[in-house]
């Protein structure tokens, strides 16, 4: 079937060009044009207006809070993701399928529902643990801890889902050989396993970071949207846009878009820089053999 389709496209080159044009047009309309428009709208009133939009105290605090939440949640979910991927790839146990489903659950639940779930657990007024938290003078809802918890919840699957297939496809012979030669589990992981999963891990961390920085729904429910206190950058963008501060909204939105683009560029630079080292290592191994 595949060969037949390929042969038809060769006989009708216009069909191939049409498919390429459709694909590029779709990407342009859905991805490229909106991103370009963000930067255009951000700078349409000049650099001074752009700078004013991103340097207000509220915008600066929102940016700081957004980065702080990402700095806390991404490392936690990175460690958790590697651990869970290792467990799922290397061990068989009752309830394994259920565990995979639980890890994927945040992808299926609406972020608004996620925020409501945490309110029903940790709110001082209606939460299951609310009375205990109030007695201990601990604020989770409408405070930073609640925002961290919800961000952790919605970003749990990404590292696991990127690393798990790579671990499942790895040959165990190298790990077993390292252990036979006297390497402990930690040395085996860093010297044998980690080099094989590093790119999958990097992709997972990038996706996790992007989701943590750009999260809106769950955080908006538990934050209370307190200006200068619990407003993240996405919440700040929503507020200033609703107040018809269009330039400020697009200026702050461009920061998120720029961060995403910078992350992707950095990933490609690291990947390109790593290729010569990988090829050199392969050649050394061939020479030794």
From TrEMBL:
GO cellular component terms, semicolon-separated: plasma membrane
Location comes to:
Membrane
Residues crossing the lipid bilayer are 20-43, 63-88, 97-120, 140-160, 200-224, 244-265
Source species, domain of life: Bacteria
Membrane-protein topology: Multi-pass membrane protein
- PROSITE patterns assigned: ABC_TM1
Give any GO molecular function from the UniProt entry. Answer: ABC-type sulfate transporter activity
Q: Which InterPro entries does the UniProt record give?
A: CysW_permease, MetI-like, MetI-like_sf, Sulph_transpt2
Primary residence: membrane
Q: Which UniProt keywords apply?
A: Membrane, Sulfate transport, Transmembrane, Transmembrane helix, Transport
State the protein's purpose: Part of the ABC transporter complex CysAWTP (TC 3.A.1.6.1) involved in sulfate/thiosulfate import. Probably responsible for the translocation of the substrate across the membrane.
Q: How does it assemble?
A: The complex is composed of two ATP-binding proteins (CysA), two transmembrane proteins (CysT and CysW) and a solute-binding protein (CysP).
This protein is called: Sulfate ABC transporter permease subunit CysW
Instruction: Name its species.
Output: Tolypothrix bouteillei VB521301
Q: Which gene encodes it?
A: cysW
């Amino acid at each position: 079937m595949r060969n037949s389709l390929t042969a038809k496209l060769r006989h009708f080159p216009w069909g191939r060009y049409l498919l390429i044009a459709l694909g590029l047009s779709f990407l342009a309309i859905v991805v490229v044009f909106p991103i370009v428009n963000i930067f255009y709208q951000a700078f349409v009133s000049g650099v001074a207006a752009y700078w004013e939009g991103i340097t207000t105290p509220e915008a600066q605090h929102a940016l700081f809070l957004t980065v702080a939440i990402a700095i806390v949640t991404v490392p936690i979910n990175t460690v958790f993701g590697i651990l869970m991927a290792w467990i799922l790839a290397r061990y068989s146990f009752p309830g394994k399928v259920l565990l995979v489903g639980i890890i994927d659950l945040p992808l299926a639940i609406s972020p608004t529902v996620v925020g409501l779930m945490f309110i029903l657990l940790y709110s001082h007024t209606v939460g299951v643990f609310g009375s205990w938290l109030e007695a201990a003078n601990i604020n989770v809802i409408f405070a930073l801890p609640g925002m961290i918890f919800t961000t952790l919840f919605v970003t749990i699957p990404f590292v696991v889902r990127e690393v798990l297939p790579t671990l499942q496809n790895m040959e165990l012979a190298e790990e077993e050989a390292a252990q036979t030669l006297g390497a402990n589990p930690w040395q085996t992981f860093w010297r044998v396993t980690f080099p094989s999963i590093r790119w999958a891990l990097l992709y997972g961390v990038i996706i996790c970071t992007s989701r943590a920085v750009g999260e809106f729904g769950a955080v908006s429910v538990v934050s209370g949207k307190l200006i200068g206190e619990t407003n993240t950058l996405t919440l700040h963008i929503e507020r200033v846009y609703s107040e018809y501060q269009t330039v400020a909204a697009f200026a702050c939105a461009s920061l998120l878009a720029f961060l995403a683009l910078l992350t992707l560029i950095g990933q490609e630079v690291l990947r390109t820089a790593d290729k010569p080292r990988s090829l050199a290592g392969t050649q050394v191994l061939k020479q030794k053999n």
